[in-house]
Task: inverse folding
């Protein structure tokens, strides 16, 4: 039993742990070396780092609801872990996508629990407008949502194809009405 749990942990959790560590280290470095609203230009008029704090969710929605968002993040993390241990998904793309989601939720949960706000620092300028500032955990959540959409779109198409093949095989196996009538006459 211990070996099986160890294998599950290693197979599933290492990716999430690495992403959470990257998220927390980048946030720590930004808090240490960049001042609030100070811009460090990486690519002129396109990409920069700046320190900003967010007490809400994406695009500062639900500002000042940090504890509610922390509870939602905690529930999401626990639900994902339960899913992994209970269902042990076989599809590697699904596993990776859910682990990236777990890392994102957990990375921002750490900030909410210890700082009562999330550290954001990655900024882009598109067509002269500053896009929302975000962090590595936010990237994880966004990419995992895109991944889940792709996964469900692809698997639903696969399921339709499998169902169609089963129906075609059943039609080949089932006798036609004429064959049934011939059998009943004999």
Result:
């Amino acid at each position: 039993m211990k070996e099986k749990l160890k294998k599950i942990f290693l197979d599933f959790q290492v990716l999430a742990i690495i992403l959470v560590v990257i998220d927390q280290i980048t946030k720590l470095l930004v808090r240490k070396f960049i001042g609030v609203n100070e811009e460090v230009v990486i690519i002129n008029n396109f990409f920069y780092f700046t320190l900003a704090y967010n007490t809400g969710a994406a695009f500062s929605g639900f500002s000042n609801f940090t504890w509610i968002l922390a509870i939602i993040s905690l529930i999401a993390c626990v639900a994902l872990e339960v899913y992994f241990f209970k269902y042990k998904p076989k599809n590697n793309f699904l596993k990776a996508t859910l682990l990236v989601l777990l890392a994102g939720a957990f990375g921002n949960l750490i900030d909410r629990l210890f700082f009562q706000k999330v550290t954001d620092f990655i900024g882009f300028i598109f067509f002269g407008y500053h896009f929302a500032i975000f962090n590595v955990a936010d990237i994880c959540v966004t990419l995992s949502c895109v991944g889940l959409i792709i996964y469900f779109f692809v698997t639903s198409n696969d399921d339709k194809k499998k169902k169609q093949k089963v129906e075609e095989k059943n039609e080949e196996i089932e006798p036609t009405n004429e064959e049934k009538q011939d059998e009943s006459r004999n």
